[in-house]
Amino acid sequence: MNKQITAPFSLETPPADKSILVLSGKGGVGKSTVAANLAISLSLKGYATGLLDTDFHGPSIPKLLGMEGTRLTSSDGEKLNPAECGSLKVISVDFMLGSRTDPVIWRGPMKMNVIKQLFEDVNWGELDYMIVDCPPGTGDEPLSVAQLIPEPAGAVIVTTPQEMSLSDVRRSIQFCRALKLPVLGVIENMSGFVCPHCGERTELFGSGGGEEMASEMGVPFLGRIPIEPEIVSSGDSGKPFVNHNGDSQFARDFESIVTAIANGVRSCI
Ligand code: ADP
After folding, report:
1. Global pTM value
2. Does residue 172's CB lie within 6 angstroms of at least one atom of ligand 1?
3. In the predicted model, what is the mean pLDDT of the chain?
């Protein structure tokens, strides 16, 4: 971690050990990117933060954080030590897999045992925040994760502005309601593109749908994140965007989202 966020950032003392589930109605909308950057932002601000990647079919957190190939160790022979990215504690199902090219064909109960272990049998220590990158969708896997995480503070739902993605958000909100899981809010990712040369904004996939959806469903809207080509290269090179591009528009937009999430967590407890 070599660059601190420079924009003003103020959070009051966080509640102890609060889990935030990061959900999306489908894959590819930037859920893991948001989870990784949220966890990094909180840890850069000095909060004891854990990041738990429970996405069996596409565990991308290790790649986003440059931690591929990490294998977990145990200092007492009983509990696993989380891997570390600066002061952020990280556990991914990918750290348990033999080869990155192996398809994961574990049956449901086995997967759930693994997730339970990743939460319970790990030396997480005292945490202020635990960010959980959930499997996409509203099926059995995110359902089991949401049920296995003890007392989650709430969920953040990531979407893109397209109609198809927005109807998935409706389902995600209903999913949270069925589980009595507070919705901390909706983030509209890939919302517009600002030309780096002329500064003109183009709404490639439309814009504002996430906010309308949030208001229609009566949940908070946390903010928009533009399409930022460097997010792809920083993800591919394992350099989390917020701590390498602290003065970018993305980092500024993201910072107000982090503050809104933290405020939402406090009001939910
Ligand atoms: P998910 O977890 O929803 O499957 P990812 O976080 O893995 O999605 O993101 C999917 C792809 O989109 C990645 O290549 C990522 O770098 C890229 N991406 C995510 N958010 C943005 C953004 N705001 N601008 C540009 N690319 C993005």
Report:
1. 0.89
2. no
3. 83
Q: How far is the CA of 107 from the centre of ligand 1 (A)?
A: 28
How many Cβ atoms sit within 10 Å of the Cβ of residue 203?
A: 12
Q: Whose CA is nearest to atom 4 of ligand 1?
A: 28
Atom of ligand 1 nearest to the CA of 58: 4
Q: What is the pLDDT of residue 206?
A: 67
- Give the integer Cα–Cα distance in Å for 172 and 53: 19
| Residue, of 205 and 177, whose pLDDT is higher | 177
Q: Is the C-beta atom of 24 inside 6 A of ligand 1? A: yes
**Domain-by-domain residue ranges, the chain?**
16-268
Please give the distance, rounded to the nearest whole angstrom, from the Cα atom of residue 126 to the centre of ligand 1.
Answer: 30
Over range 248-269, report the average pLDDT.
83
Question: Which CATH topology does 16-268 take?
Answer: Rossmann fold (3.40.50)
- Rounded Cα distance between 157 and 188, Å, is 9
Q: Cβ atoms within 10 A of the Cβ of 205, count?
A: 18
